[in-house]
């Protein structure tokens, strides 16, 4: 007998836990399960440092947060979603406070806020520079208080069960034993996070392999705006470890090899004197990452054994401020780079950080499949448009995790019928057989999984990096099918059932190859430059043709069919993005 729940949430990160709590709150009679391939507290949300944006002070307004988000996203955001988001974000952050989140405070006890890139007012709440840890911990312990939430920790979901456009559950592998289980549900919430690992140099944890995007895509749900890949301007060379934008929000400066604050040459404002949120170092991430490439082209970066870098200078901030506001930055620099930012410059370079695209949803998290909801980085609502503003993702997890949870709960509570039919049972049986035979099938393989993965990552970086054009993208589109062929001959050397990480790496690589194809095909199709999608052969934004979301549908041959969906504009007609002193 398969395990059965009313709602299954896939993912124990910020979005998944928030969704599970919302389901339990909406209808306590519902039986909820969370399936996560890692223990929930190890989800990538834990590593968020800088903070979560929500209007807090009397000098700020919901309209200003909306406008910054819409213009930061180069007018590709759906404005109804943005308005709902900015309205609900303060309530969600306050709720988190009531659940125990230790937000940093001002001396008089009010919530402290900091500046963040592209936000023209200070509205980023933070818990020192360990915001994600505290946020996830708060959600996890709150979820624990709902005794009816069942957890499948360290279970890997390998497929969605879908019949006639409707989701009926999943098949998953228990990592500790290799046991394969069918888990049926009336509704499924996908909250599996992003896919930075399709690129070679990323701030993303190893587990961010786009599984949920690939599973939904294969099952018939289209992916939206996949061409928009965010590079964060300040990663440590070699490891890709993130130096949070909070370091620049506290006054950090970016210097080229001549010690010059080069951002003043890129329409992002002047060096001095400006309030910190108008400083050029707090321009949006797409612009700052693009400026790095121009500095590189001009020979104004420093070459290190791990590639070219510029430097982040925090020295003028002093030990006291760094230790109180940026303790984790100092710790990371000391541990992983062997430098002390109190006295030394930090070498940094752009690094893949976040996917603006994901599973297409409406503002309630509903996808193209009945009963399937999505929230968090795996989803594209879209509030992030062509470029996400830093600190908008954490509140997005809360606002849309809660919305998706409520919608899934209502759907499950209203669901009638006798449960999965013969087609679903057959699908589950086929997946069991496939998984049972997978290790044997790949036992004779000759190709190393790591080699195929590296080739895929290099293909994506050279084909669909910060700047792309038709030739680079076409080359990537040609290479990826060859990698897919090699994937069929990949070797799985570990034949055991217990924690077979080799097998999981194989399944994850399969997901990443599908996601890569969707990025490349969506990028090929969009013949304009907007936000994080910069085509050197189409350098201008083209609102006539492309004020629209791309929707890519999976084709049986592995390619994708792209169509466009108009952007929802409620109040802000497309304009020019202006930063710096205004
Ligand atoms: C280093 C870093 C710093 C960041 N800092 C900030 C910040 O300061 N502010 C901000 O707003 N944003 C920040 N972000 C972005 C933000 O943290 C993420 O977008 C967000 O945390 C994603 O949350 P999520 O719940 O969608 O997914 P995740 O937290 O990534 O969780 C995904 C979950 O899905 C599960 N899962 C995945 N695949 C499977 C599968 N096949 N089967 C079962 N389970 C599966 C995983 O086990 C995990 O529990 C940062 C990101 C990084 C990488």
TrEMBL record:
The lineage of its organism: Bacteria, Bacillati, Actinomycetota, Actinomycetes, Kitasatosporales. The active site is at 285 (proton acceptor). It catalyses: a menaquinone + succinate = a menaquinol + fumarate; a quinone + succinate = fumarate + a quinol. InterPro entries: FAD-dep_OxRdtase_2_FAD-bd, FAD/NAD-bd_sf, FRD_SDH_FAD_BS, Fum_R/Succ_DH_flav-like_C_sf, Fum_Rdtase/Succ_DH_flav-like_C, Fum_red_fp, SdhA/FrdA/AprA, Succ_DH/fumarate_Rdtase_cat_sf. Its cofactor is FAD. Keywords: Cell membrane, Electron transport, FAD, Flavoprotein, Membrane, Nucleotide-binding, Oxidoreductase, Transport. Belongs to the FAD-dependent oxidoreductase 2 family. FRD/SDH subfamily. FAD binds at residues 11-16, 36-51, 211, 377, 388, 393-394. GO terms for cellular component: plasma membrane. Part of an enzyme complex containing four subunits: a flavoprotein (FrdA), an iron-sulfur protein (FrdB), and two hydrophobic anchor proteins (FrdC and FrdD). Substrate binds at residues 232, 244, 353. One of its GO terms (biological process) is electron transport chain. This is Fumarate reductase flavoprotein subunit. Residues 453-579 form the Fumarate reductase/succinate dehydrogenase flavoprotein-like C-terminal domain.
């Amino acid at each position: 007998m398969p395990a059965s729940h009313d709602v299954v949430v896939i993912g124990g990160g910020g979005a998944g836990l928030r969704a599970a709590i919302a389901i339990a709150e909406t209808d306590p009679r519902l039986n909820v399960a969370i399936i996560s391939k890692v223990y929930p507290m190890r989800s990538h949300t834990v590593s968020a440092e800088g903070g979560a944006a929500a209007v807090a002070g009397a000098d700020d307004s919901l309209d200003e947060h909306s406008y910054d988000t819409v213009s930061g996203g180069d007018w590709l955001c759906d404005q109804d979603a943005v308005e709902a988001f900015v309205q609900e974000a303060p309530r969600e952050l306050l709720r988190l406070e009531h659940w125990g989140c230790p937000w940093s405070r001002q001396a008089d006890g009010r919530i402290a806020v900091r500046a963040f890139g592209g936000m023209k007012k200070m509205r980023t709440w933070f818990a020192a520079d360990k915001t994600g840890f505290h946020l996830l911990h708060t959600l996890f312990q709150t979820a624990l208080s709902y005794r009816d939430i069942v957890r499948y920790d360290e279970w890997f979901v390998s497929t969605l069960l879908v019949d006639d456009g409707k989701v009926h559950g999943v098949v998953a592998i228990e990592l500790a034993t290799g046991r394969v289980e069918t888990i049926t549900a009336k509704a499924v919430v996908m909250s599996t996070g992003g896919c930075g690992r399709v690129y070679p140099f990323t701030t993303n944890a190893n587990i961010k392999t786009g599984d949920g995007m690939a599973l939904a895509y294969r099952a018939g749900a289209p992916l939206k705006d996949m061409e928009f890949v965010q590079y964060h301007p300040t990663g440590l060379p070699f490891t890709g470890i993130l130096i949070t934008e909070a370091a620049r929000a506290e006054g950090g400066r970016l210097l080229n090899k001549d010690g010059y604050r080069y951002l003043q040459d890129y329409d992002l404002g002047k060096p001095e004197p400006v309030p910190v949120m108008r400083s050029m170092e707090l321009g949006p991430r797409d612009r700052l990452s693009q400026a790095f490439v121009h500095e590189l082209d001009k020979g104004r970066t420093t070459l290190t054994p791990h590639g070219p870098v510029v430097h982040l200078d925090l020295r003028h901030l002093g030990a006291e401020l760094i230790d109180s506001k940026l303790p984790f930055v100092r710790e990371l620099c000391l541990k992983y780079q062997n430098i002390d930012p109190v006295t030394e410059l930090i070498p940094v370079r752009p690094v893949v950080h976040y996917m603006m695209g994901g599973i297409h949803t409406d503002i309630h998290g509903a996808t193209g499949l009945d009963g399937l909801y999505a929230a968090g980085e795996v989803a594209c609502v879209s509030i992030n448009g062509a470029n996400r503003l830093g600190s908008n993702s954490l509140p997005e997890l809360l606002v849309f995790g809660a919305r998706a949870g409520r919608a899934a709960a209502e759907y499950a509570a209203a669901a009638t019928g006798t449960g999965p039919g013969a087609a679903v049972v057959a699908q589950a049986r086929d997946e069991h057989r496939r998984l049972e035979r997978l290790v044997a099938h790949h036992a004779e393989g000759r190709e190393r999984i790591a080699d195929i993965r590296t080739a895929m990552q290099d293909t994506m970086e050279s084909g669909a990096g910060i700047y792309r054009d038709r030739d680079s993208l076409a080359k990537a589109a040609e290479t990826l099918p060859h990698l897919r062929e090699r994937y069929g001959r990949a070797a799985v050397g570990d034949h055991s059932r217990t924690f077979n990480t080799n097998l999981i790496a194989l399944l994850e690589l399969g997901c990443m190859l599908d996601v890569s194809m969707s990025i490349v095909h969506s990028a090929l199709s969009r013949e304009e430059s907007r936000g994080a999608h910069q085509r050197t052969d189409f350098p201008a934004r083209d609102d006539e043709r492309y004020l629209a979301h791309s929707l890519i549908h999976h084709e049986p041959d592995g390619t994708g069919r792209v169509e466009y969906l108009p952007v929802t504009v409620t109040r802000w007609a497309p304009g020019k993005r202006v930063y710096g002193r205004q």
